[in-house]
Amino acid sequence: MNVEKFRKRKAISPILATVILIAITLIAAVAIAGFVFGLFGSFTSSAQVSVSVSTCTGTKSHLDCTFVARNTGSGSTSITGMTATYGATVSPATFTAQQVAAGGTATFSASFPVTGLTAGTMVTGGAALANGGTAQWSGTVNAVNSTT
Known about the structure:
This protein has 148 residues and is an alpha+beta fold.
């Protein structure tokens, strides 16, 4: 076997090998950090819903509120449930589920069973979303009709 043939072959210098290894490490670190910290964006669409009260009026037995839901996210969702809290009382709503498109708004009404409600009462609540989230809302009762 000819040993001189193998001795004439040269490898890359140790400095060049070190620079290549550092470059590979930096590229891998940037790629991992980009996915972990969300620098490259998200591949899923999500809904970002906020709910505000337009009006709330009531009677002795129920509270009727009109809401505006705004979705600033990139995905659609629907509002599947509503609750209202005044004092220590939590009331589920009677309403029809509302679809809120991505970048859109929806106006809807909900009726809550109540007792002892007066005008000026602060009411808070939550809107349950189909994606599992909850949008909080708050408002003041504008008027209470005491005849019904």
